[in-house]
Amino acid sequence: MSEQTAIPMLLACPVCGARHFDEGEFATKPHHTHACQHCGMVWRPAIVPTVGVRFLPGFGPKPDERDRAVLEAIARVDALHAALSKIDK
């Protein structure tokens, strides 16, 4: 079986709605199955390999434009999703 290139996707958990970002080796290793870091749900968003990204290629800020304020905003959104997932339990 030949190794496929993972398709970048904006992924959200189908249970709690938290955004899913692949980091580390999972950001470059083609895979089908994703696990939510907030609620533990495991799902397959497609039948082809995918990778959860913060921005679709060509639409996100360039690396030199990622200032502290943007990273802090992303962290606040992630914290809000985590807090909301705890309320629903």
Molecular structure report:
This protein has one helix at 68-87; strands spanning 7-9, 11-12, 19-20, 34-35, 42-43, 50-52. It is α+β, with helices and mostly antiparallel strands. It has one domain (7-87). The strands form three sheets. The protein has a two-stranded parallel ribbon. A hairpin with a 6-residue loop joins strand 2 and strand 3 (19-20).
Summarize the structure.
The chain is 22% helix and 16% strand. The chain has 89 residues and is an alpha+beta fold.
Fraction of residues in helices? 10-25%
The overall pLDDT, averaged over residues, is: 83
Q: Compute the number of strand runs.
A: 6
Task: Determine the strand fraction and express it as a percent band.
Answer: 15-25%
The assigned structural class equals alpha+beta
The whole-angstrom Rg is 14 Å
Compute the number of structural domains: 1
What characterizes the major β-sheet?
Answer: 2 strands, parallel
Stretches with pLDDT under 50, minimum 5 residues: none
Distance between the first and last residues' Cα: 41 Å
* Count of DSSP-assigned helices: 1
